[in-house]
Specification:
It is a single chain. It contains twelve helices and 13 strands. It is α/β, with parallel strands linked by helices. It has three domains: 79 residues, Nucleic acid-binding proteins (OB fold (Dihydrolipoamide Acetyltransferase, E2P)); 150 residues, P-loop containing nucleotide triphosphate hydrolases (Rossmann fold, 3-Layer(aba) Sandwich); 68 residues, Probable gtpase engc, domain 3 (Ribonucleotide Reductase Protein R1, domain 1, Orthogonal Bundle). The radius of gyration is 26 Å and the shape is globular. The N and C termini lie far apart (88 Å).
Length: 374
């Protein structure tokens, strides 16, 4: 049987050290999942595995279960005596997380132990700065380093320089790569981020060319793709997450589209570092950047240093992150609380309303209804 180089699959000294705490068990990495059954790669090849009863009993959240990209401890490393048993999940260094389906607030790990996440966006009608800001917030929060990959440069025409200039204003400190699936060397800028032991992930809207890029990197059509339709958009064809080894070093994971990745735990401080820095100069520490005097953020907009659209998206994502995972009643309570925050809360608002009623509706004899507010 062909030996697998686990270091090339991302098994760093960090994981080797932790795995030594479990004598008698073997380390492997989850490469795919089918409901309750996992495919795991070890130094002796691939094998099927399932979780132990202890993991199932001790798990408090869905995030406690193994996910694609996890390093796990197994009772065997050869597929010759039935399914292997996963006894432990080693500590993750990064993770993409989404809200679990249903009404539960539970979180599920989509993919883990990623070094670089490529945020793919097509240079056709899919180009959207507000969407990039959202992706960056999620990527920074995962613990991986984001890189923006612009695909389908052949469809951009003469607008490339202008789009790169626009992107520079929102991608604070993030590398931007331009690729084309038509040119033979159109994917080479991505290769510089690969290498022995590196794990990369691709995310982005459906049909932007993620699967095409991955197929180019691994040298075969492992993932299905479809041509762009008449509406200038592709169709999402990836049906599951899978970790695939890359010839020459490293591994790649194709992650779901944005519709599956929530904003609840996004790192907006990094995604909007410029607004965060400006906020320090605001007069009020809790400035909302809407109507307060001496607001440095609003001043930057007036001076043409910051776009009003970027601030609007920042405030929108902050609100979305606050409400993500709440049911309708909880969301309504949060909205009411925020509505009355400026007047000291709901109780104080009731007092103010009652005082106003007393002033506007005095009773005969000069006395006002209700309490005597001074």
């Amino acid at each position: 049987m062909k030996q697998i180089n686990m270091e090339n699959m991302g098994l760093s000294q960090r994981f080797i050290t932790e795995s030594s705490q479990y004598p008698g068990l073997h380390v492997g990495r989850v490469i795919s999942q089918y409901k309750d059954l996992y495919r795991v790669v070890t130094e002796d090849g691939e094998l099927a595995a399932e979780i132990s009863g202890k993991i199932r009993f001790d798990a408090k959240n869905l995030s406690d279960f193994p996910a694609v990209g996890d390093f796990v401890m197994l009772d065997r490393n050869k597929d010759n005596t039935g399914n292997a048993i996963i006894h432990h999940v080693l500590a993750r260094k990064s993770a993409f997380i989404r809200k679990a389906a249903g009404t539960s607030n539970d979180e599920q790990v989509v993919a883990s132990n990623i070094d670089t996440v490529f945020i793919c966006m097509s240079l056709n009608s899919d180009f959207n700065l507000r969407r990039v800001e959202r992706y960056l917030g999620i990527a920074w929060d995962s613990g991986a380093v984001p890189v923006i990959v612009l695909t389908k440069a052949d469809l951009c025409g003469s607008d490339l320089s202008q789009k790169l200039l626009e992107l520079e204003k929102v991608a604070c400190g993030v590398d931007v790569l331009v690729t084309s699936s038509l040119a033979e060397d159109g994917y080479k800028p991505v290769r510089s981020y690969l290498g022995r032991g590196k794990t990369i992930a691709f995310t982005g809207s459906s049909g932007v060319g993620k699967s095409t890029l991955i197929n180019r990197l691994i040298g075969r059509d492992a993932l299905p793709t479809r041509d762009i339709g008449s509406d200038d958009r592709g169709r999402h064809t990836t049906t599951r997450r899978e970790l695939i080894a890359i010839p020459g070093g490293g591994a790649v994971i194709d992650t779901p589209g944005m519709r599956e990745l929530g904003i609840e735990s996004a790192d907006l401080a990094k995604a909007f570092a410029d607004i965060d820095e400006l906020s320090v100069k605001c007069r009020f520490r809790d400035c909302t950047h809407t109507r307060e005097p001496n607001c440095a953020v609003q001043q930057a907009i007036n001076d043409g240093l910051l776009s009003a659209e970027r601030l609007a998206n920042y405030l929108k994502l902050k609100k979305e992150a606050k409400y993500e995972g709440l049911n309708s009643r909880q969301i309504e309570t949060e909205k009411i609380t925020a509505m009355f925050a400026e007047v000291g809360g709901i109780k104080n608002a009731r007092k103010l309303a009652k005082a106003k009623q007393c002033r506007e509706n005095p009773v005969p004899g000069g006395r006002k209804q209700g309490r005597d507010y001074r």
